[in-house]
Every structure is written in C-alpha cells, then in structure tokens.
Amino acid sequence: MSFYKTLVRPLLFQLNAETAHHFAVEGCRWASVVPGIIHVTRLCLESHDPVLGTEVAGLRFRHPIGLAAGWDKSGRALRMLDAMGLGAIEIGSVSARSSQGNPKPRLFRLPEEHAVIVNYGLPNEGADAVASRVASYRGRVPIGINIVKTNDGPHAPACDADEILSDYERSARLLHSHADYLMLNLSCPNAKGGRSFFAEPGNIERLLQRLQPMQLQVPVFLKLAPHDEPAQLDSLLMQCDRFEFVRGFCFNLPSTKPKMSVAPESLVDKPGAVAGRPVASLINGCIAELYRRMDRERYAIIGAGGVFTAQDAYDKIRLGASFVQIYTAMIYEGPAITKRICLGLAELLKRDGHSSVTQAVGSAHE
Ligand SMILES: Cc1cc2nc3c(=O)[nH]c(=O)nc-3n(C[C@H](O)[C@H](O)[C@H](O)COP(=O)(O)O)c2cc1C
C-alpha cells in the first residue's frame, strides 16, 4: 500500500471532492517552498528509462505519461508538479477572462467505477493572471497550456462567433510564448459556447485562421469531442490541413454518460461528464479511427481517458497515441501512479521488442 493510499487519500476523501481538489493543489503549491521537499519528491517519484524517451511534434519528453488539463487550472502548483516525475504538465483550461465556473457542487467521486463526474464549467483565474504566473516559471518538464472560451455562467446570453473566436485569440496571444505547446479545448462537455459551436462545419477553420497571423512558435493541439465517424474526422482534418502549426489532437470527455455497472443511481444522475475507467474504450475507439485517417508524419494523438495502468497506456499507444495523459488515476492512486505506469510500460515495450515508444505507436494496426 502506498503512502498516498494509506494516509493522504483517506483524509482527502473525508472532504467533498472539490474541497479535496482545492487542498491538493494548494498543498502542492505551499509544500514546494518547504526546504528539501522538491528534492525528496524527485527522488521518490522520478523514473528514468531510455526506452521511454520520446519526441512528439518536435518536443522532447522524458517519457510519454503527462498530467491532463483540469487538475492545475491556473498554473498554481507547477513547481511541485515538475518534481512529481510527469512527462509533461498541461495546465488550464484557461480562458481570456477569469471565470467562476458552474454552481457548486460540481465534482463527484464514483469510487466503485474508478471514475468522477465533473461539472466544473471551467473555473480559472483568466489568461492575464496565468500568463504572469507562468512567465517566471523555469521548469524541467514541458508545459502545455490548454485554452478555452470563457464560461460566463449558465445564464449568460449566447455569444456570437466573433466573441468566441476573439476569446481564444486573446488567450493564445497572452499565453503562447510561455508554453511548450498549446491545446485548444474545443469541446468542454459542461460549459456553453464551445462544443456545439465547433461542431458546425467550418468553425474550427475560422479559429485557426484567427491564430495564423500570430506565427505561433509552439505546436498546437486540438481537444475534440470524442467521435469516431469517418466523415466527421475527415472534415476536421481538411479544416486543419493548411495550418501547419496544428500538430495533433486529443479527445475530451463524452457529454453523455457511458455505461456503468456499480455506481449508485443517485450519483450517476448528477449533471456533468464522467472521467476515468468507464470512458477508456470509447476514447480508444476514437484514437484508433483518427490514427487510421490522419497524416501520421504531421499529426500526433495525445490519448487521455481511463488510464490507470501501464497496460492502459500501452493500449492507447498501440492504437495510435504518441503521448498519454492521466487525471482520474491521480485522484484514486496518487502521484506515484506515473512512476508505476512508466516502469510497467518500459517492460511492455521491451517484451514486445520495441526499442522506443515511437516504434509502438499504432502497432495494433499492423
Ligand atoms: C475534475 C476534472 C476537471 C477537468 N477539467 C478539464 C479542463 O479544464 N479542460 C480540459 O480540457 N479537460 C479537463 N478535464 C478532462 C481531462 O483533461 C481528461 O481529458 C479526462 O479527465 C480524461 O482523463 P482521465 O480519465 O484520466 O481522467 C477534466 C477532468 C476532470 C476529472
């Protein structure tokens, strides 16, 4: 049993899920100023195996397991996260203006399912605050910044296309020079003004047109609603084609609840999207279909959704993901999960005769 599972998790799980999340982020933020903590954390949680070193969209990663967006929404805990042995850290989603997100309660645990229901609605401190915080940060791990349209709350009037596009443009302008990559979240399942707008043909292209004059020096990834319909994926790829800065994709959570067997109905009926184990197979199907259709020389897939073990990560890599992200596993298993996945993944790669992660990417299609 790990230190996290015996001591930390029981304490955090006494609190409601959002309060526990808040304490975890602030705990990391404040712990990082205690002398020696960063060093000890590194010693305990970092792992090094050359077989895991990889390159995606021109970025070098020590290994292919990173933190997904939504844990450190405003880049408050970067120093500690940097010491936790992650392959990359994606902060956000950050919006042009700060947002309170949706009314509380808005995060629920489903321990029997290894899942959570999330209805945060993108609370964050806004692009100005995040830009000034991350500007002074010099870490060892690549940082992705995930950008989204500001959520003005459930009762805000609908905004027009220009407002939506300007919101993304402003955040990208403020944040791109502080990031190793940008992730455009076009698919938040629980806020107005995003997912449905980008489902309309041509709107992704309009956004990319807005960003083009910035001459972005960092690769841009698009976080999409999960779908595996060939026509929709082909339309997406056509819209991205002429924008060279677009280097890949990630799938967000489905807005409808996946099949779950044991979670109590009272919880399953809560508003929000399910993250964790129950979404893994749906997202794996999307990764496989996109990998079949995309130009693999140019694009890479970042796979997130229900990764708890080395085998889960390996499955996503074999289906076509070049990099894998975790979130819900951090809640249930704690930060040592990254090292455990890395050790297991290195063994799986070697068992199957792969000398690198890149060699294994898409190998299920051969
Ligand atoms: C509590 C919570 C908050 C999240 N917030 C965001 C967010 O702000 N932006 C985003 O792009 N994804 C967000 N996500 C989605 C994750 O980045 C990830 O895509 C998803 O949780 C699947 O990974 P998992 O099954 O390992 O949790 C959030 C997920 C959770 C659980």
Task: Set out the fold topology.
Blueprint: H1 3-12, H2 17-31, H3 37-45, E1 54-56, E2 59-61, E3 65-67, H4 78-83, E4 89-94, E5 107-110, E6 115-118, H5 127-135, E7 143-147, H6 161-175, E8 181-185, H7 195-199, H8 203-211, E9 220-224, H9 230-240, E10 246-251, H10 265-268, E11 273-276, H11 280-293, E12 300-304, H12 310-319, E13 321-326, H13 328-333, H14 337-351, H15 357-360
Parallel strand pairs: 3-13, 4-7, 7-8, 8-9, 9-10, 10-12, 12-13
Antiparallel strand pairs: 1-2, 5-6, 6-11
Helix pairs in contact: 5-6, 6-8, 11-12, 12-14
Domain Dihydroorotate dehydrogenase catalytic: 52-349
Pathway: Pyrimidine metabolism; UMP biosynthesis via de novo pathway
Protein name: Dihydroorotate dehydrogenase (quinone)
Structure overview:
Its cofactor is FMN. It is an enzyme of class 1 (oxidoreductase). This is Dihydroorotate dehydrogenase (quinone). Keywords: Flavoprotein, FMN, Membrane, Oxidoreductase, Pyrimidine biosynthesis. It holds the Pfam family DHO_dh. With 366 residues, the protein is α/β, with parallel strands linked by helices. It has a single domain (3-365), classed as Aldolase class I (TIM Barrel, Alpha-Beta Barrel). Helix content is 39%, strand content 16%. It contains 15 helices and 13 strands. The chain has helices at 3-12, 17-31, 37-45, 78-83, 127-135, 161-175, 195-199, 203-211, 230-240, 265-268, 280-293, 310-319, 328-333, 337-351, 357-360, and strands spanning 54-56, 59-61, 65-67, 89-94, 107-110, 115-118, 143-147, 181-185, 220-224, 246-251, 273-276, 300-304, 321-326. The strands form 3 sheets. An 8-stranded parallel beta sheet has the order 3-13-12-10-9-8-7-4. Helix 5 runs parallel beside helix 6 (161-175) and helix 12 packs across helix 14 (337-351). The chain is globular, with a radius of gyration of 19 Å. The model has no long low-confidence stretch (mean pLDDT 95). It binds flavin mononucleotide. Residues 68-70, 73, 92-93, 107, 116, 118, 120, 122, 146, 185, 223, 252-253, 275-276, 279, 304-307, 326-329 line the site of flavin mononucleotide (FMN).
